[in-house]
Sequence to fold (291 residues):
Amino acid sequence: MKLQKNHQILIVGLGLLGGSYAEALSKQGYRVTAITLSQEDIDFAVDKGMIAGGAAFVDPTLVGAADLVIFALYPHVFKDWIKENQHLFKSGIVITDVTGVKSCIVDEIQSMLRPDVEFIAAHPMAGRECSGVQNADASIFRGANYVVTPSDKNTDGAVELCEDLGRILGFARISRLAPKEHDEIIAFVSQLTHCIAVALMTCTPAGGEYTNRLEEYTGDSFRDLTRIARLNDEMWSELFQLNKYALLHQMTVFEGELNRMRSMLELDDMDGLREMMRKSTARRALFDKKL
Fold:
């Protein structure tokens, strides 16, 4: 199943990701509408050509006309929205999401959905250290990864449609993971990295009298490593909590590796340190985005 130009696409939640989806799809000639909390955000998106129209309330006409609905909401808001409004969907539509955790979302949404509506989950691995539709930019998908997380309740057609959406949006690499596998790896490559960045920014280093003036002494390494420490506390705390056990496990794994490096340093194990750095350099080279 492919996404067709005559398909009506509705985005629910017009923030950074929802707005970036809207911009990318509209630039490709798809008709996109949106539902979000703020009329000001709707007006901004219409003015910028991101959407053809929208509403700051759950408009039955917009929902009922949609062939594909993309949810860009906090997990608990997404679940509540489905409970309250799924009766507005027309029969046979597909819905997808951008949520950063999957196990607790996929099972609950698929269990509560009408049998004539299909939910295929996805996670765009892209973003910025800012929020709001005013900061939306379709270019954030260029060179980025897009993960589709099907379950045994999904049809091949819906999975194909979701993967086609990722290609249209401009993602460089599209992959599939089961929801549980997704949450395990995301705990490492995304949530743990945010934990490290936050901890660096909140700890008091030796020479603590300079803590409030660190910006006067840092180089690019500290700035690059802590770039993601500027985050949405409401969203990220919810994601951490929903994926608590996977994240705690990855914290333990990381602590073990940091302690291994600490032991090498204490024992003056230069060969061990250099080998660890060589492994790090080789692995990091695989992550550079190829546009």
User: Anything to note?
Assistant: The first strand starts at residue 8 and ends at 12. The CA atoms of residues 40 and 56 lie 9 Å apart. The longest helix spans residues 179-202.
